[in-house]
Specification:
This protein is α/β, with parallel strands linked by helices and 699 residues long. Helix 1 (28-43) links the parallel strand 2 (13-18) and strand 3. The chain binds 3-hydroxybutanoyl-coenzyme A (3HC) and 1,4-dihydronicotinamide adenine dinucleotide. 1,4-dihydronicotinamide adenine dinucleotide (NAI) is lined by residues 299-305, 322-324, 328, 379-382, 386, 390, 407-409, 431-433.
Length: 699
Amino acid sequence: MGATVKYERRGPIGVIRIDNPPVNALSHAVRSGIMEALAIAATDDSSAVVLFCDGRTFIAGADITEFGKPPQAPSLPDLLLTLDKHPKLTIAAIHGTALGGGFEVALTCNYRMALATAKVGLPEVKLGLLPGAGGTQRTPRLAGIPAAVDLITSGNPINARSALTLQLVDKVVDENLIDAAAAYAAELVEQKAPQRQASTLPLSLTREDQQLIEVAGAKLLKKTRGERAPQRILDCLLTAATQPFEEGLKREREEFVACLADPQSAALRHMFFAERAAGKIDNLSQDGQAISIATVGIIGAGTMGGGIAMCFAQAGINVTLIDMTDEAVSQGLEKIAKNWAISVKRGRLTAAQTDAMMANITPSSDLNDLAEVDMVIEAVFENLDVKKEVFAKLDGICKHGAVLASNTSYQSIDAIAAATTRPESVLGMHFFSPANVMKLLEVVRGAASSDTVIATAMAVGKKIGKVSVLSGMCYGFIGNRMLRHYGREAALCLVEGSTPTQIDSAMESWGMAMGPLAVSDLAGLDIGYKAREQLTAEHKGDPASYMVADRLVEAGRLGQKSGAGYYQYDPETRQRHEDSAVMAIVTEVRRELGITPRLFEDDEIVNRLTLALANEGAKLLQEGIAQRASDIDVVYCYGYGFPRFKGGPMHTIESMGLDKAVTLLKEFQNQLNPEHWQIAPLLTKLVANGGQLADHHGV
Ligand code: 3HC
Ligand code: NAI
């Protein structure tokens, strides 16, 4: 039967035992093994069969690595057909997570028992898929349409007790799962319990259900910005409620196959593995072991420091939050309390929880209070001299071995580290605003940063719920260095003839959470303005790329905070409206630069902006600033609102074909400012060799 599946007997009960670490995914070997075990159990003298998994979890789904490869029999639907018709009573014994195809196996069994700590769910939508082995047909038959819509379109797992309430699980136990499941099986046999098949349960479509599906469809269309799998799921659920089970299965299979072939699913599956790869650091030395972090000092109780403090306090880690004066730190604490109060109001947290989190934060205006903390994160003003002064002081105060991190957006980690006598303890930990919400953390390795501090920052990031990505040292690190090129092209499209609305709408229709000019308005146009003031003309780049922004600021249009920027904002709804005053500034800039405006196609905007990102990304990869192309994709999807269903800028050009990407880049080089479009040598090399970005490792 192979090493991954065993068939054993516990007295009269047959036990199919699956052991395929790490998550018991339904690989070909597991499917074949279960099929063989079912065949034995069908003919031996067992009275019932329990399906049980070794290791940390029940089956966590189909083996995602097999998608896109030639199918190998038995398929999961065929296996489940056999399971559904099995002559013996079948019971799934669930611990850990029964997800996707794993939960579909459980739903096909006659009964389900779960440990109280277990979770069940159908997360396929997060991979651009839908449950492809009866999940869309069995779930509504057991739990009803509303619960099925929720579970399958959100992809979020639910705990065992909720599953019990929804009748997706029949019994919950606190411990000794395999013993309890064998006893449950014996009890069901004793009671002559029927072989309950979800496939035979009746289901009809009420008017309320129909309405619910329609409303969910409209909401999802807006929320997912063009993802197709959620709509396909709703179609399958509608079929479940209006057609016989076999017809529903057929429809589900067709939709599943369509999803699997959809580039959106390829992109989302790429992101699944990209996120997990990002946590791994290449060539970490033996002493690169993370140290445990129990206490953290955060310096600067402003926008970022406050948000970062919330992340740690929420994870149960003690924080000492420092600002220059008691008043400043109190203001920071008030903001934190206000943010948490909103979460309580929205029902996301209880008042008791936020009290406990607040108790994890100790305010102070004395840096000496950081003498014993394990890690310090500095989030003071973005000014190198101020930061150097802070680090020089920390050097004299903090205990040996403390990790000293800066949240700087642009400053040199090496210059900051040089202000201390222990540059090996210094690194960058670049959070994104709002820090308590945004999932990305760039961990920036300075020239002297030790492997220990890097490993520690990556581990701490995971602990506080961030997706951490390692970046080498350069101006803007991975994300902001690429963003300059994206922002430049957006600004240039505007002066060359487009409008703010066209640029933002083109990017939003393509999938970006928010268009580039709307993002600038949200962040505040004054931030870029002040940053440019500190740069030389050469570093500022092409004046055409910032003249409009400068004039907007000079006209008092700082973005949303002043009610106007690239747009006029409705004070009540914050809705943006195009503003003739902005177009007057644009016209003036065009005249000064001698630009005759031309008509723009949305496609040109999308291609220019995404290729500007990817071209710079390829340079980062080549320079070894990024470890892998997929890390860059993680940065953009988690830090910059890039649509996960496009898989990030690097996946975007990989899936369009690197040769096509280079052809477009060459066109831009010929037609636009060639200095802006110097093609990354890595791209031309990969096209020449027929190589892939995915195979290239930054050093
Ligand atoms: N297939 C292949 N590999 C998988 C996998 C899967 N379904 N699920 C996890 N893995 C791998 C991960 O890539 C990772 O590999 P690595 O160590 O080499 O990086 C390893 O297993 C451990 O995974 P995590 O780091 O994610 O471990 P956690 O303990 O944090 O999480 C989990 C465990 C909750 C099970 C999480 O891995 C998960 O959500 N997995 C995906 C579940 C899923 O999406 N299932 C549906 C698949 S599609 C399907 O079933 C279609 C069907 O309807 C026909
Ligand atoms: P902020 O101005 O909101 O907060 C800075 C805080 O630091 C203020 O409360 C100030 O009183 C305090 N401070 C200044 N000097 C200090 C000192 N010597 N000791 C103690 N406290 C001191 O600034 P913000 O936006 O929070 O930025 C902080 C850092 O985070 C900057 O380096 C910035 O580049 C970076 N950053 C900012 C992001 C953003 O979107 N705002 C995003 C990512 C990083």
